[in-house]
Amino acid sequence: MAKREDTAAARGLTPHDLVLDARKERIAQVISRRTRSLVVVLDQLLDSFNMGAVARTCEGLGLQELHVIEHPEQPYRRHPGVTKGCEKWLDIHRWPDFESCRANLVGRGYKLWASDLAEGALPVGEMRFEGKMALIFGNERRGVSAEALAAADGRFCIPMRGFVQSFNISVAVSATLSQAIAWRERHLGPEGDLTPEDAQELTERFTRLSVKQRDKLFPQFEGE
């Protein structure tokens, strides 16, 4: 006779039974400030350190989605030393090309704003971060691609006051998102904008992810 697998599920337990109340409160607090209406798009970055730093910034500032248009020579890969595991709390969407990413975001109602140093770009401090916005940041060497610039609804820049002409990509994302979140808190309030259904799904997911050895205890969720 086959030995019955001794898992938490087999004993009638759920992830909620194994997570402390303090952790549940923390999960609820995070989700209450989570947003999907503001997302970051990375346009063919080459440096995994930079991509990891951006992911950590996005999660820390309450964004739920990060979109990565992969460089043909450098597919996206995790950088645990930088991210400290933040990827598990994010939805990271990987795209083979800009058009695939654009079609998804435009189809979901996002306006595309591209980071650009050229004349005519709107200073980030003058932007209104309302509605669904996707902020595109470009490759470390050449910036945002011509294709993305042509498709963007607007262009923005971080005004420079020194001799350097630009910031590291992870710094640029941090500076822009800090402005965006501050604007939204002033004009829209501190709460997030998840739908009740999305908030519930993320609550279940974040609760499972908070359980140590979850793959052994709940093999049905292995790989999450």
What features would you highlight for this structure?
single chain, 224 residues, Alpha/beta knot, 7-stranded parallel β-sheet, 9 helices, 15% strand, disordered N terminus
Q: What's the N-to-C terminus distance?
A: 31 Å
- SSE string, helices as H and strands as E: HHEHEHEHEEEHEHHH
Q: Could you tell me the CATH topology label.
A: Alpha/beta knot
Number of domains: 1
- The CATH C-level class name: Alpha Beta
Q: Which strand order does the major sheet show?
A: 3-2-1-6-4-7-5
Q: How many beta-strand segments?
A: 7
The proportion of strand residues reads 5-15%
Overall 3D geometry?
A: globular
Helical content (DSSP H or I, runs of 4+): 25-40%
| Corresponding CATH superfamily | SPOUT methyltransferase, trefoil knot domain
CATH architectural group: 3-Layer(aba) Sandwich
Averaging pLDDT over every residue, what do you get? Answer: 88
**Estimated structural class:** alpha/beta
**Compute the gyration radius: what is it?**
20 Å
Q: List the uncertain runs.
A: 1-5
Please outline the major beta sheet: 7 strands, parallel
Q: What's the helix count?
A: 9
